[in-house]
Amino acid sequence: MELSPNQSERASRYQRFMAQAKALPPLATAVVHPCSPEAVEGAIEARDEGLLAPVLVGPEAKIRAAAEEAKVSLEGLRIVSTEHSHAAAEKAVELAVNGEVHALMKGSLHTGELLGAVVADGSGLKTERRISHVYVLDVPSYPKPLVVTDAAVNIAPNLDDKRDICQNAVDMLHRLGLTEPLVAVLAAVETVESSMPATLDAAALTVMATRGQITGAKVDGPLAFDNAISLSAARIKHIVSPVAGQADILLVPDLEAGNMLAKQLIYLAGAEAAGLVLGARVPIILTSRSDSVKARLASAALAKLQAVGRSTGVALP
Prior knowledge:
Blueprint: H1 5-22, E1 27-32, H2 37-48, E2 52-58, H3 60-70, E3 78-81, H4 85-97, E4 103-106, H5 111-119, E5 132-138, E6 146-149, H6 159-175, E7 182-186, H7 197-210, E8 218-223, H8 225-229, H9 231-236, E9 249-251, H10 255-267, E10 272-278, E11 284-285, H11 293-308
Helix pairs in contact: 1-11, 2-3, 4-5
């Protein structure tokens, strides 16, 4: 079947991104509690694509049983045995702190259990930044990659949290070669309304960027979703903004809004998504059983490019 020009460009964009990641040595990654067939398969897929060098951390018997059920071989893979999932999370953090691995990948444990070990006092991976999640989306109808943050970690972030969420996403795009990302701080309307706290935060974040409290990006808000991604919608509403209609990053008001937005783009608009947790000393890959193979590999590639801190200048998938 012949691809349409739009489909062909998307495939080419994805292939360039993956090729850039594969050109680097496999990234040593602790796969935390890979005790389901899907979790083991995800690690093997990333290894076979030359993206990751997995270290499997968890109860060895359960890991081997999951591999047997998935009909994959663990030959050549290092297994660090622990008693249970909580111990696996703590051990993975220890491996990262010691420099034995340079990324973490969620297996079949709860996200909170893994991230709790990362941000625990004295873990060694915690930084002054609040950790946050990014979805890097390839939306068929949008001409460039679109980042939605935070849709998975921070439930109801305050202004200081949003500042860190914004800076984490900006720094990520810097490492991928985008020198000045455009950040749209989303709300339901594009005017500041005292009855709508999201608009007050958006206005504050805009000023914070002009005062150097957020660096390396143009930030504007509040912007409604249509004004953030559609130049025509912004023109109709007479919005004068360096960001409106061409955002690289959508900073959402809270987790519920971000999660619904990202999943609508994935399931209704056909977007492919790479997901990553930022703000710790190593990138953290969050996987889901419902992720496509392409999405899992894109997340691994994104983590790899973040870990090496290399500016690629290559459009993301």
